[in-house]
Design goal:
Rossmann fold; five-stranded mixed sheet; 5 strands; globular
Length: 191
C-alpha cells in the first residue's frame, strides 16, 4: 500500500496549507470488495507520479473512515475526489459511477459516515459553520461492489476488472478540475 498517510501532512484540522486536489480512496482493504477505493487510489497515485509536474497539485490518500474524520482531511483543499465501494439496488458488480456528493443520499451508513459519527454531508456543514476551508467541489467515483463484509484482501473478479475504468475516470476528473483551477487563476491575474 502506497497511499500517503495524513499524519505527516497536517498538524491541525483547520489548517489551509494544501491548495489543490485531494484524491481519497475510502474503504477497508481486508474486507473484499470494500478495498476497491484503496486499489483505485493506488493506481491513480502511480499514474500521477509518472506525469509530474502535471500531478503536482494533487495529493492521494487512503482512509477507512468518513464523516468528521474525512471532513478534517479535506480541509485546505480546493477540490476533492472520493473513491469508494457502493452497493445499489440496481447496479451490477464492477459498474463505475461518476457522482457529485449532492447525488448521494445523506445516510448514516457506508464509509462516508461511521457508527459513532455523522454523514460526510453533515460533517461538511459543521466544518463550514466553523470556518474550515473545505473543497467547493467534491466528486465521488463509486464502484458497485459485491462482497464488502467478507474478510479477504482479494476483490471479486468483476470489481477487480473495474480498476482500469475507475482509474481513468479519476484521472479524467483530475484533468478537468486542474483545467478549472487554471481558468480561475488566469481570471484572477491582472491583465
Amino acid at each position: 500500500m502506497s497511499c500517503a498517510s495524513f499524519a505527516s501532512m497536517k498538524s491541525s484540522p483547520l489548517e489551509s496549507d494544501h491548495p489543490g486536489i485531494l484524491v481519497v480512496g475510502l474503504g477497508n482493504p481486508i474486507l473484499g470488495d470494500d478495498g476497491i477505493g484503496w486499489r483505485v487510489a493506488e493506481a491513480v497515485e502511480s499514474a500521477l507520479s509518472e506525469e509530474k509536474p502535471a500531478g503536482q497539485d494533487v495529493e492521494v490518500a487512503c482512509f477507512a473512515l468518513g464523516g468528521l474524520s474525512l471532513m478534517e482531511h479535506l480541509v485546505g483543499f480546493d477540490q476533492a475526489i472520493i473513491i469508494d465501494a457502493v452497493q445499489t439496488s440496481a447496479g451490477t458488480p464492477g459498474q463505475v459511477y461518476d457522482l457529485s456528493l449532492a447525488d448521494l443520499p445523506d445516510l448514516s451508513a457506508g464509509h462516508l459516515t461511521a457508527a459513532h459519527d455523522t454523514s460526510l454531508q453533515t460533517a461538511l456543514k459543521l466544518g463550514q459553520e466553523m470556518g474550515a476551508a473545505l473543497p467547493g467541489d467534491i466528486r465521488v467515483v463509486g464502484i458497485e461492489a459485491d462482497k464488502v463484509y467478507d474478510f479477504s484482501e482479494i476483490l471479486s473478479p468483476a470489481v477487480e476488472a473495474a480498476i482500469p475504468e475507475a482509474t481513468q475516470l479519476v484521472l479524467n476528473l483530475v484533468n478537468e478540475l486542474q483545467g478549472q483551477r487554471s481558468d480561475l487563476i488566469a481570471a484572477d491575474s491582472p491583465a
